[in-house]
Structure formats: C-alpha cells, structure tokens
Design goal:
287 residues; alpha+beta; four-stranded antiparallel beta sheet; single chain; five-stranded mixed beta sheet
Length: 287
C-alpha cells in the first residue's frame, strides 16, 4: 500500500532537489522563514486565512517546479474550493407598469420637505446668535479630538499590520537581512549537538556486510540501495545529524546537497567532490 504524501513533504523534497534553503524560498515569496517551515510541516495554524494559504502553497510549488497535475490534485483534496450558494427568486411573469402620476406626486412631496427643512435650518442658524457660535466652537473641538483619535488608531493598526507581514529586504543591500539571520543562527548554533541514528538492514560483519556513515552539516536527502537493488535507506536528514547504515555491498548512493555531507565507508573517508554533478547531487557506487 503506497504511503499518502503530504503537501509539506512534497514541497520540501522539491526544494532540496532544487538545492534551495528555507531562507531562499522565504526571500523570493516575501514570506517569513517561520511561515515556510510551517507549510513544510503542514502546520497551518499560524495562517489567518486558508484562501491566502492556498495561494502561498501554489506560489511555492511554482518556485520549486512542482506545479504538476498530481500536486494540483493533492492541493484540491487538502483545500477543496467552497462553492458559493446561488439564491434564486421566483418570477410569476407579471409585467411591471410604472405609475408616472404617482411618481411625480412623490417627487413634489420630497422637494417640499427639503425646502421646509432648509427654511427651518436657516431660522435656527439666524436666531442662534452667540450661543450657536459657542456651540459650534465646542463641536469643532470635539471633531478635532475625534479626528486625532481616529488618526492615532489608524497608525496603530498600520503598525500591527506591518508587524504581521514578513520583513522586506532592501534592494540596495540584499544581503543585509541574510547576514543578521546568519549572525543569530551562529550564536544559537555555536555548539551544535550531533545526533546519530543507526539504520540496520542485514546485520553485517560475519556475512560480508559493510558500514556507511553519513555526517550532515546541512539538510540533505540521501538514498542507498544494496546489492539486490533494494532501497535500504531513503529520507531527508536535518543539519548537524549523523546516520549509520549497515548493508551488503555493492551499494548505489544518491546524495542531495552533497557539498555539505561527509561520507565514511568502512572507516575510510570518501571524497564526494568528483561525484557532484548538476544541482549539487552526487551519485556513486561503493564496492
């Protein structure tokens, strides 16, 4: 039974195949790194609108060249379009005949009402005197205070909206935001902890098995096939982790982002540089 792929898993694999980091995606889509990571983890709780989220995912797929029919179908299953309800009204076929006389009479009444209202306003204005002028000054002060308060509220709302938007990188210094993020990352990761995972297929030593050790300084996707052509290891590996794979040689290896991977085969270091081809992917065999 095939495993159902998630949207985040498909986008993450496509990003790594294009040798792009989360920072690259965030910069080109004008989103924050936190939003990109949430999409890859299928955590949509930080997005206020699923309509905008669907657009973000479509733009992400186009950027990493994953805008295929299969992905579109997966997107439609995860985010079905909500059809709007149509409201219909019954029509009995009766023709509408306007009553011109009635309309003219109503118009005359409206004009007279307006004229009377204008006369009343003029009388009130003329008889008001100084008291009306004072009341007008008070009203002007109230209006000014209301205007200042409204302007303050608009500025506060603009600041809140700006805080919610991802930070924009200046075109004059495109590396400015990246350098700040790298400085923070360097401070937090000055002493990274190396995590080791051992993957056992055919417990080796006595039967001619071999040991492959991967050390990842950056995120990388790796696939390992054994002598029988069986896929014994295939996954995306986080940065600052280590994986140990046992199996029966010869092995066929495919390593993404190979420039940031160290390989040791049976205690012997293997130089990946000669095997790195297009898009930073290395393909090689180990006997």
């Amino acid at each position: 039974v095939g495993k159902v792929q998630r949207i985040g898993q498909v986008l993450q694999a496509a990003r790594l195949a294009q040798v792009m980091s989360i920072q690259d995606i965030a910069r080109q889509l004008r989103l924050s790194e936190r939003q990109i990571a949430a999409i890859e983890e299928d955590d949509y709780s930080i997005f206020p609108s699923r309509t905008f989220l669907r657009g973000f995912i479509q733009n992400y797929a186009k950027l990493v060249r994953e805008d295929t029919e299969d992905f579109s179908q997966l997107l439609r299953q995860s985010f079905p379009l909500v059809s709007s309800k149509t409201i219909s009204y019954p029509v009995d076929g009766t023709l509408f005949t306007p009553n011109h006389k009635q309309t003219r009479g109503q118009l005359i009444i409206i004009l007279m009402a307006i004229l009377v209202s204008l006369l009343l306003i003029y009388e009130v204005y003329r008889s008001g005197g100084e008291s009306q002028q004072i009341d007008g000054n008070v009203e002007n002060e109230v209006m000014e205070e209301a205007t200042i308060k409204s302007a303050t509220e608009i500025e506060q709302a603009a600041e809140e909206i700006q805080l919610q938007l991802p930070p924009a990188i200046s075109s004059e210094d495109p590396n400015n935001g990246v350098e700040v993020g790298q400085q923070k990352s360097d401070n937090l990761l000055s002493k990274p902890e190396l995590t080791t995972e051992i993957v056992v297929t055919n417990k080796p030593a006595e039967e001619g098995g071999s040991v492959i050790r991967f050390m990842f300084t950056e995120e990388s996707w790796v696939e390992v096939k054994d002598a029988g052509g069986n896929r014994i290891f295939s996954q995306i590996n986080p940065r600052n982790t280590e994986k140990v794979v046992y199996g029966k040689p010869p092995f066929s290896l495919t390593i993404g982002n190979a420039a940031n991977v160290k390989l040791v085969y049976n205690s012997n270091p293997v130089n990946l540089t000669p095997h790195i081809k297009n898009a930073g992917v290395a393909r090689l065999s180990l006997n």
